[in-house]
Design a protein that fits this description.
The chain has 379 residues and is α+β, with helices and mostly antiparallel strands. The protein contains nine helices and 17 strands.
């Protein structure tokens, strides 16, 4: 379990990361934060692969099969395509958000100096390729914005905030999980037994795992690596927010590696017996697709741990909107702050015990079951 001081530090990183503007292919601001974080820790090193994904490992000799905790650095957002005049911009939207949410929506755009500008969407071209296009009208004139600058939804009130244990912010998916990965890595880097544990942070996940696919093509990670992919997945009644982080056995496209998933599940069952206040869930989570599917498809042993997420991709009340019962409104994403700290614990347990814990094998348990009840077949 983490200490109170560690929890405060991890929450600080959570607040910082989830308010950084980011977009697919424009993850530079988050990457700068990561570089600064690693530079402050002498026993860690960072390198980029050919796609610009980030690989963080321990310095010195590494023993054992690698374990990589993975997460992505982008979130559905706007990128400026053209400046039409001093108050009108053409944007493209990279990521998955339903069309009704764009109608007259408020957004904020950021120039190269991180100054923000408010605007309103006045037109949507939902069938434009390769991404939806939108036209935005700025609240005031400026010549500071340029093609390539990014924008995101604008929300009233101060963010981030914690209300009754729920953390609300601009971007949980996937920067809240990335913050948890850094919390776990800061603990693990002090342990001699975890020199084989690293972080792998990908780009352009929101338009089809593009950074991950490029990494698989280039074999940026060794094929012997075990991958624990982190996500934020839409919450449903059977996967409630606040019931603990989720060991995700699959997504809407596939099921993940059963050997790794079952091993982690057994570790968490054993940990929960010793720490009864620890909460976690084991669910399929069909509300989206995960990088673990891509890694598994290309031969990597991979599974997923995720947060149950509210306002997935900033879409409030998705089912009500699609059913025509509610007007479409964007809103901050949200997770449970206890789930956040639970993920740090879960990752630490997995990384420290994946190779060392002595657990009864499922095959052994089934053999015992057969031996004890075989007589019913002979009656």
């Amino acid at each position: 379990m983490t200490t109170a001081a560690q929890r405060r530090t991890h929450e600080k990183w959570l607040r910082q990361l989830t308010t950084i503007p980011t977009a697919t292919g424009r993850e530079d601001r988050v990457i700068a934060w990561v570089k600064d974080w690693v530079a402050q820790r002498r026993n860690l090193k960072l390198r980029k692969d050919r796609a610009g994904n980030l690989i963080i490992t321990r310095t010195g000799r590494r023993k054992g099969r690698p374990i990589f905790i993975t997460g992505h650095l982008d979130h559905p957002a706007f990128v400026i395509r053209r400046i039409l005049d001093d108050r009108t911009l053409e944007l493209e939207f990279r990521g998955g958000v339903q069309d009704p949410y764009f109608e007259n929506a408020k957004i904020e755009l950021f120039d190269a100096d991180d100054k923000s500008y408010r605007a309103t969407l006045i037109e949507l071209q939902p069938k434009a390729k390769p991404f939806k296009r939108a036209t935005a009208r700025l609240a005031r004139k400026t010549d500071a914005l340029a093609p390539g600058d990014i924008g995101r939804w604008a929300f009233p009130g101060k963010l981030p905030r914690i209300t009754k244990g729920i953390f609300h912010t601009h971007v949980c998916d996937d920067l809240a999980a990335v913050a948890a990965a850094f919390g776990a890595m800061d603990i693990l880097r002090a342990k001699r037994s975890t020199t084989n544990v690293g972080l792998f942070l990908t780009r352009a996940e929101e338009v089809g795992f593009i950074g991950t696919l490029a990494a698989c093509e280039a074999q940026s990670l060794p094929k012997t690596a075990r991958l624990i992919c982190l996500e934020n997945s839409r919450s449903f009644p059977d996967s409630p927010i606040g019931a603990g982080p989720v060991l995700r056995v699959g997504d809407r496209l596939s099921v993940f590696d059963p050997t790794l998933t079952n091993r982690i599940s057994a570790l968490l069952v054993a940990y929960e017996k010793k720490h009864p206040h620890f909460k976690w869930q084991r669910k399929l989570m069909t509300g989206g697709a995960c990088e673990a599917t891509a890694f598994s498809t290309y031969g990597y042993e991979s599974t997923c741990i995720c947060f149950a997420l509210g306002n997935y991709h900033n879409m409030a009340d998705i089912d009500g909107v699609l059913a025509g019962k509610r007007p479409a409104k964007v809103g901050p994403e949200y997770i449970s702050i206890d789930d956040f700290h639970g993920m740090v614990t879960m990752l630490t347990v997995c990384a420290t015990q994946l190779d060392t814990a002595r657990l009864p094998s499922l095959e052994g348990r089934l053999d015992k079951l057969l031996a004890s009840h075989r007589h019913v077949l002979e009656e």
